[in-house]
Recover the amino acids of this structure.
C-alpha cells in the first residue's frame, strides 16, 4: 500500500488539458474561464457624476462666486453640456458624463435653486462626487484573470466590455460505472438481500457543479461483461470513474480486467480509512480510470479527496487548502490515515471548527447529510486532541 501523499502525487502527475472552446456568456455560468477579460476602453470611459445635482468649474468658487447660472440640464447618456463662463453651472444626473469645462459636482440637497440660479448651501471640495475617467482601469488592463469559475459577476463584466462570447476550458467526457449484482436501480423495491444504487448519482451530481454532464452505467459482476463495456467506454470517454469490484473478493474483477485490457495500474490500495482498496490507472491512450471501493462513504471521500482535486488541477482552478480546529478528541489505532466525518462551524473568533460524528464504518452513509467535510488526520498519530488543527475536505 502507498500513503495518501504518494497517491495524491501520482494522481496530480496525470493532470490533463482538454482544450478550449468559445461559448456565449448566457451558457458560461460555472465554466472555467480560459482567457483574460480586458477592458475595451477606460473605466469609467469619461468623468461621470456620482450624484444628482449641479456641475461647476471650481475656479468659479476660487473667484468668490457662490451663485451659479444654470446653463442646461443633462441626463445620463446625453452629450455633455459645456459652460460658457465659470459663473455658470449645469444640472447633471447620476452617471452622466461631464464636459471638460466642469470639474466639481454638488448634490441637489446642498444647493438652493431659484429663478434659474443655483446657490451653494455647504462647503465644497474640488472634484468631489466625480468618478474620474480611467480611475478603475485603463484600456487593455485585465479585469478578470483566466482560470477561475465563471460567476454572475464575471458574466456581467464580460457583457460590459462587449464580450458576448468567451473562451472557456473544455470539460472531460466522464463515464461513471457502478458494479455489483446486488445493486438495483433507485426506483426498484429491493429484496432483503439487495441495495439501491446511489454511488453513481452522487458522483454525477458532484461533477455537475463543474458543468460536467457525466453518463452513468451499471455492470454486474461478470468478467466478460465488465471487460467488453470498459473496452467500449475507453474509446468514448476521457475519464472512467468506477465504484466497486476493486477489493479482495472472488467477484472483484476490475484489477484483472484492467490488466487484460492493457490498462496500466498506477497504484492499488492506500493506507487510509475509508477507501483503502482505491485503484488508479491509465490506458495506452492516456485515458484515466478512478476505481473506488463500493461503500458509499469510501466513494464520497475518494471523490472529494482525489478526483475533484485532479479535476480542478486539470482545469487550472486554484483553491487554497482549508484547515479547521478539532472540537473533540479522536482515538484511531489502525495503521491507516483516517478521514473522519465532521460538522463545520465558524466560532466567535472567526475560526473554522470541526466536530466529528460517530459512525459505523464506510457502509454507514447516513451521516453524510448532517456533516460537511472529512478531516484528514495524520498517519503517524493515533491520538488527535481537541484544539489541534488539520486539513478538511468539504463536500457541501
Amino acid at each position: 500500500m502507498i500513503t495518501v501523499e504518494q497517491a495524491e502525487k501520482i494522481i496530480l502527475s496525470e493532470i490533463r488539458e482538454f482544450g478550449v472552446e468559445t461559448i456565449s456568456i448566457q451558457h458560461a455560468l460555472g465554466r472555467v474561464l480560459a482567457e483574460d477579460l480586458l477592458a475595451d476602453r477606460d473605466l469609467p470611459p469619461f468623468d461621470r457624476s456620482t450624484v444628482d445635482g449641479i456641475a461647476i468649474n471650481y475656479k468659479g468658487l476660487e473667484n468668490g462666486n457662490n451663485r451659479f447660472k444654470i446653463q442646461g440640464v443633462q441626463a445620463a447618456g446625453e452629450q455633455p453640456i459645456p459652460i460658457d463662463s465659470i459663473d455658470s453651472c449645469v444640472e447633471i444626473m447620476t452617471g452622466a458624463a461631464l464636459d471638460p469645462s466642469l470639474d466639481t459636482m454638488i448634490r441637489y440637497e446642498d444647493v438652493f435653486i431659484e429663478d434659474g440660479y443655483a446657490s451653494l448651501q455647504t462647503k465644497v471640495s474640488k472634484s468631489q462626487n466625480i468618478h474620474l475617467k480611467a480611475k478603475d482601469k485603463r484600456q487593455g488592463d485585465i479585469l478578470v484573470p483566466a482560470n477561475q469559475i465563471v460567476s454572475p459577476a464575471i458574466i456581467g463584466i464580460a457583457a460590459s466590455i462587449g464580450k458576448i462570447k468567451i473562451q472557456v476550458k473544455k470539460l472531460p467526457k466522464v463515464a461513471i460505472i457502478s458494479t455489483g449484482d446486488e445493486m438495483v436501480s433507485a426506483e426498484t423495491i429491493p429484496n432483503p438481500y439487495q441495495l439501491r444504487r446511489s454511488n453513481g448519482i452522487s458522483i454525477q451530481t458532484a461533477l455537475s457543479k463543474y458543468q460536467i454532464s457525466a453518463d452513468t452505467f451499471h455492470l454486474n459482476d461478470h468478467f466478460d461483461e465488465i471487460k467488453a463495456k470498459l473496452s467500449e467506454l475507453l474509446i468514448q470517454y476521457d475519464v472512467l470513474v468506477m465504484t466497486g469490484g476493486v477489493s479482495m473478493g472472488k467477484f472483484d474483477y476490475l484489477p484483472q480486467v484492467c490488466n487484460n485490457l492493457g490498462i496500466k495500474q498506477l497504484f492499488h490500495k492506500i493506507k487510509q480509512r475509508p477507501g483503502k482498496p482505491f485503484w488508479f490507472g491509465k490506458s495506452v491512450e492516456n485515458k484515466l480510470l478512478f476505481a473506488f471501493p463500493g461503500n458509499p462513504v469510501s466513494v464520497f471521500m475518494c471523490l472529494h479527496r482525489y478526483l475533484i482535486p485532479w479535476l480542478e488541477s486539470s482545469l487550472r482552478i486554484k483553491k487554497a487548502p482549508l484547515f479547521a480546529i478539532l472540537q473533540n478528541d479522536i482515538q484511531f489505532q489502525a495503521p491507516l490515515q483516517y478521514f473522519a466525518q465532521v460538522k463545520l462551524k465558524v466560532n466567535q473568533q472567526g475560526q473554522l471548527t470541526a466536530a466529528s460524528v460517530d459512525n459505523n464504518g464506510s457502509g454507514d452513509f447516513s451521516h453524510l447529510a448532517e456533516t460537511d467535510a472529512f478531516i484528514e488526520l495524520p498517519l503517524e498519530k493515533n491520538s488527535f486532541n481537541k484544539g489541534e488543527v488539520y486539513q478538511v475536505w468539504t463536500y457541501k
In short: The chain has seven helices and 28 strands. The radius of gyration is 31 Å. The chain has a mean pLDDT of 93.
